[in-house]
Amino acid sequence: MNYQQLQKIYPEATLHPFPAEDEKTFYSIPSNQGFLWIPIEKLSTSEKQLLSLLTINKEIKDNASHHSWYNALFLEKAAPVSEGSYRIIQVEFHGTHDLLSSDWDKEIRNMLPEIVDSFFVTEKYGLLIERKSQQALTKEELEGLFLALDGDFNVYTRLFVGPFHVYDQEFSSLLKEEEMIFSKFLERNSQTKCCDLGMATIPYFADRFGSESYLMQKLYNDWFDEDMNEIIVFLWKNQGNVSSAAKDLFMHRNTLQYKIDKFQAKTGLNLKDMNDLFLGNFLVTTFAIF
Q1: Which of 7, 66, 161, 170 is the most exposed, having the fewest neighbouring CB atoms within 10 Å of its CB?
Q2: Taking Cα atoms as reference points, which of 18, 45, 41 lies closest to residue 29?
Q3: How big is the chain by its Cα radius of gyration, in Å?
Q4: What is the DSSP pairing of strand 14-16 with strand 26-31?
Q5: CA angle (269, 245, 274) in 5-degree steps
Q6: Using a CB cutoff of 8 Å and minimum separation of 24, what contacts does 198-202 make?
Q7: Helices (H), the chain
Q8: Which residues contact 2 (CB under 8 A, 6 or more apart)?
Q9: Closest Cα to residue 249, out of 266, 226, 268, 270?
């Protein structure tokens, strides 16, 4: 934080080379020139909360700046590697956790030994950089691992498992897009714990481009209802397998097949054909509200 800017806002504040010991009288925050002591009586509750958040995020940023991968991802410097492939695992945190403790970091590195760097970007958002190996876990395996960690550390996490990229790519550009895809997925889906490109790409591009199409909106309005929305979701999840989808829907297979046939007669879409199923899933992903 800039000392001069803060002192304009809080003229009673004084600059010191160390934090205040009397925390009941002064609130001290780090600045670019030392620690600024602000009288507690001059701060509202909301101001205390805001300054606390800014202080935490500054500590996080200062710590992250010492990581070579932070510099590669956010300052567009060269990735600190000369070979291999790497993926970025984005982790969103909910709940209380001690950012200054290394216990969580140690545990995740024990479970994923190919992690080459890890750090928080904000109080609730961190990144893991993992080198590709034969032991690399799948999305489903990572979900189970993080569920166990959540229980051990009393947090709830959601994560985006990025694809592996060869070392000579512009990782900062890759992260920016993967961040946007993850962010959009979190907006549209409040339940899924772990996602990857395969799961999140359609919602992202459907929202960006499909929602602007009059044709797509008209088809959705004409073809779909709440019942069919759910059927499409489970058919897509099960790659068009009617028996598996019926099981997930708690529906008799013949009942589901009847609904699919009725839908085909109405729309001309054959949901056994993956191209038609993709179109149906695209429409539901773009316009349905669950």
Answers
A1: 66
A2: 18
A3: 25
A4: unpaired
A5: 35
A6: 199/139, 200/160, 202/281, 202/282, 202/285
A7: 3-9, 45-64, 68-74, 103-111, 139-153, 171-188, 197-209, 214-223, 226-237, 242-249, 253-267, 274-287
A8: 31, 32
A9: 226
Model pTM score: 0.66
Rounded Cα–Cα distance for residues 217 and 21 (Å): 62
In angstroms, rounded to a whole number, what is the distance separating the alpha carbons of residues 96 and 114?
Answer: 27
What gap in Å lies between CA 18 and CA 29, rounded to an integer?
10
Question: What gap in Å lies between CA 178 and CA 161, rounded to an integer?
Answer: 9
Tokens 């897509």, residue?
Answer: 236
- Report the amino acid identity of residue 217: Q
72 is written with which tokens?
């590669």
Residue 207 carries which side chain, given as an amino acid letter? D
H-only helix segments in 24-156: 45-64, 68-74, 103-111, 139-153
